[in-house]
Design a protein that fits this description.
This protein is an alpha+beta fold. The chain has helices at residues 36-41, 54-72, 78-86, 93-100, 156-169, 210-216, 253-257, 302-308, 330-333, 353-363, 410-439, 446-470, 476-501, 503-508, 523-538, and strands at 22-26, 31-34, 46-50, 175-176, 188-189, 202-206, 262-269, 272-280, 298-300, 314-316, 349-350, 372-383, 388-400, 510-514, 517-521. It is built from 15 helices and 15 strands. The radius of gyration is 27 Å and the shape is globular.
């Protein structure tokens, strides 16, 4: 509830430094809401932030990081960071910082409401439904929401969370033109893209508690490269907003993490927030922001290089909801040399800057081998010209920091190659499903896709467990062989099940064309081909079932890939 006074004499106020509004999960499993002051004071006893959506957690984490960077005026370098890491009371500095800037953290202030623009209005003084900022109410499809028929009112705590989220993840589409916005045409501003974090495949390092998480992601100033042009790096609450549509580069992480990609103003009464005024804010292109934005992986884009006439363009690598985090391990742990194509060309992919930073900490022995981090990935998948949210991605991988060591790459190489082992084996299983369909006289691709999905799903748990313990062994190569044996066992069982379920049609078989001419394909021959492919890709573990050799005249059929 807001701090209430006589409503007709004093304005409403909701002090985010003292009022509870940020969701947290305690280390004992209890959930509650805390104020900014309490979050920093109790960070060591909190497991992590929570939100109404995972994307809200990511946006709030970046908010807290901006505050920490500003309060510490750093860290300036790795030694400054190490002093913070070793000081259990380092976040005590945030208490004085919040006292100093308390006036800029009032959600309902008349002159400088937090993350809002005082006096923001359209030419006709229109206001919009709160559905515009509450991301779990799809525009135009309220029957998919738990808030039927829509959001009529929000409490101040929840409204504050959605304000932070709107700047980070608001959808694109046509928005109302605000008074003074030079981009407005006929009272509207046409699509300019999603909020800044919405363009990222969000990644951060999660520690054992919130204190560790904040510090692990507190990247030093010498680890990023901003062309500041002399501008000070200030968070949004210490920066005067420029005209809507004015383009400028971010001056540093404090500026970037609190980027005002929207202009908005809440409408409230004593009982809560009832409406919002929402328009476009500061534009920011994702092209070649890889030296500045550390919380996403990056991919090289030849298409953008051609379009803009630039020799090198990197774009954020967004998350694919159908692909679990473990299958994309290389984008998280492989350094630039490992992602460099054959020859001397630039890397095809760049891992997230926060994990580059972690690699420096490990290599400089600020983090010791055996320390586990959780690489957390959070992102949004937009649909219909980015005007609606289709899916939210939330996944993680627990790994020993030794995988990020810059001089000891053997662990990372074996971890990445272990994923390739799984993919090759699953491809072989998919080929088996295709061959069984051909033997039965069908060209249906569904069984192949189903077999692959089931196999990846069953391999996921074992791989995550294998990866989490990889750093504890002395010989990563030997551990890789153990993984290949485990994959062999799991996929052999899946193959046997496919052959059993193929039915009489596949058992009897039929005449099909192959590279050697026509041959009689049935489930027995398809099984022999499958076992040969497994042996080729995984070798033959000593304790694995001995496969039969394929007939000399029946080489594996051409693979059908999806």
């Amino acid at each position: 509830m807001p701090e209430t006074h006589e409503a007709d004499q004093k304005p409403l106020t909701f002090d985010l430094t003292r009022q509870p509004w940020i969701g947290v999960l305690r280390c004992d499993g209890a959930q509650e809401e805390l104020s900014l002051r309490e979050v920093f004071a109790q960070a060591a006893g909190l497991r992590r932030l929570t939100g109404d959506l995972p994307t809200q957690e990511f946006a709030l984490l970046r908010l807290l990081l901006a505050m920490a960077h500003d309060a510490f005026d750093g860290p300036r370098d790795i030694e400054h960071w190490a002093r913070l890491w070793d000081d259990p009371h380092c976040f005590d500095a945030l208490s004085g910082y919040l006292d100093e800037h308390r006036g800029r953290f009032d959600l309902l202030d008349d002159q400088a409401p937090f993350f809002q623009t005082a006096g923001l209005r359209t030419e006709k003084n229109e206001v919009a439904s709160l559905n515009r900022i509450v991301a779990d109410v799809p525009n135009g499809e309220p029957f998919f929401s738990a808030r039927l028929p829509g959001v009529g009112r929000l409490g101040f705590a929840e409204a504050a969370r959605w304000v932070v989220h709107a700047h980070a993840y608001d959808t694109s589409g046509i928005k109302s033109g605000m008074v003074g916005d030079r981009r407005a045409r006929g009272g509207k501003v046409y699509p300019l893209g999603v909020g800044w974090a919405g363009s990222l495949g969000g990644v951060f390092a999660e520690g054992r508690n919130l204190r560790e998480t904040l510090l692990l992601n507190l990247v030093a100033a010498d680890a990023v490269d901003f062309d500041t042009k002399g501008l000070p790096d200030l968070p949004a609450w210490r920066r005067e907003l420029g005209p809507q549509g004015a383009e400028r580069p971010p001056a540093g992480l404090r500026d970037l993490y609190t980027w005002q990609s929207r202009r908005l103003r809440l409408q409230a009464d004593a009982d809560g927030v009832t409406a919002v005024v929402l328009g476009y804010g500061d534009p920011l292109s994702a092209r070649n922001m890889h030296t500045r934005e550390p919380m996403t992986a990056w991919r090289r884009s030849p298409a953008q290089e051609k379009k803009h006439g630039e020799p090198l363009v990197y774009l954020p690598r967004e998350h694919a909801p159908e692909r679990s985090a473990w299958r994309g391990l290389s984008s998280l742990v492989a350094d630039r040399e490992q992602n460099r194509p054959e020859g001397s060309g630039p890397p095809s992919h760049l891992r997230p800057g926060v994990l580059d930073w972690t690699a420096r900490l490990v290599t400089r022995r600020k983090l010791k081998r055996g320390f586990l981090i959780k690489a957390r990935i959070i992102g949004t998948v937009y649909g219909t010209q980015q005007s609606v949210v289709d899916e939210v991605v939330d996944d993680h991988l627990t790994m020993d920091v030794i995988l990020l060591h810059e001089q000891d790459r053997d662990y990372a190489i074996q971890a990445i190659d272990a994923v390739k082992d799984a993919e090759l084996a699953v491809n072989a299983l998919g080929d088996l499903a295709t061959d069984l369909e051909r033997a039965a006289g069908s060209e249906n691709e569904s069984p192949r896709l189903t077999a692959r999905d089931r196999a990846f799903a069953e391999l996921e748990g074992p791989y995550r467990a294998w990866l989490a313990h990889l750093g504890q062994v002395e010989d990563p190569f030997e551990q890789r062989e153990a993984w290949k044996a485990q994959v062999h066992t799991i996929l052999t069982r899946h193959g046997r099940q496919l052959v059993t379920e193929a039915g009489d049609g596949a058992w009897q078989g039929r005449l099909v064309s192959s590279k050697q001419g026509s041959l009689w394909l049935n489930s027995a021959l398809a099984d022999k081909w499958f076992r040969a492919r497994l042996r080729k890709n995984l070798g033959l573990p000593a304790f694995a079932e001995q496969p039969s050799a394929p007939d000399t005249e029946t080489e594996p059929s051409p693979k059908v890939h999806t």
